[in-house]
Amino acid sequence: MLSQILDRLRDPIVFALPAVGLLVAIEMLALRFGDDKNVKGFDARDTRASVLTGLGALVVSTLLRAAALGLYAVVYTYLAPFHLPADAWWTWVVLFFGVEFLLYWYHRSAHMIRIIWAGHQVHHSSEYFNTSTALRRKWAQWFEKLVWLPLPLLGVPPVLVFTMHSFHLIYGLFAHTEKVGKLPRPLEFLFVTPSHHRVHHGTEPEYLDKNFGSILIIWDRMFGTFQPEGRRPTYGLTKQINTYSIWNIQVHEFATMAREVRGAGTWRHRLGYLFGRPGWRPESEKQQDTSPALPAHAQS
Hints:
Blueprint: H1 2-8, H2 12-33, H3 44-78, H4 89-112, H5 114-124, H6 142-146, H7 150-153, H8 158-175, H9 185-190, H10 194-200, H11 218-223, H12 246-263, H13 267-275, H14 283-288
Helix pairs in contact: 1-3, 1-8, 2-8, 4-5, 4-8, 5-12, 12-13
């Protein structure tokens, strides 16, 4: 078990870093010398914040994955009713769809439950949409590590779980770009494309809380959260944070949530600020505010 956990620390993402750097550089050059007036491009401060945030997230992820793999190994060894062979092709098929399905629902819950959104909003905080935006990841990853528990419980070897998740993250790099338009219809129907993911990062009302898929877009089509791209999205949060500080990017929503919890008058309101939808407020406060309400994470 220990040797498997130590071997897992050799994250595929680490080995992909040179290719990631090359991809970012290529897109920067394409945007710098391109003539597309509708593409916002890069900002050096924003890109630096995304890269530094991503490096910090990689360190945190490595530490938390080591702890999570120990838990997964216990669940797999003592609670799983059967064990799937690690070298069977169909185990990888089960693993792929298992990770896809759990990622969809975890990603969707991250937009619906504020204490999870407080971490996930990091990824949405950039007002730019390019490959460096894919690197802007949260450091508060405890929910993300717990979401995979059903897989070892169903007999998936623990060492494979994060390997598959890493491949999903690497795929996400190619979905963060404005340089790729809509792809052929069969690809747009089945897979998460840059067009689909631009919608996910949009702040327009029709784009909020849409297109949660990781590699496949079929879950959004099945569960009613699919939205095709129409007008060019405006990226970021509906209430922009206007900072390039990697610390403030990570903690600003947690700090706001903590202040509101401390100021709440009842335990029901405290729980609402923690576990309600982002932007949740007591009815008494809503009645005092006559401005139109925004859906989901609009007020985060």
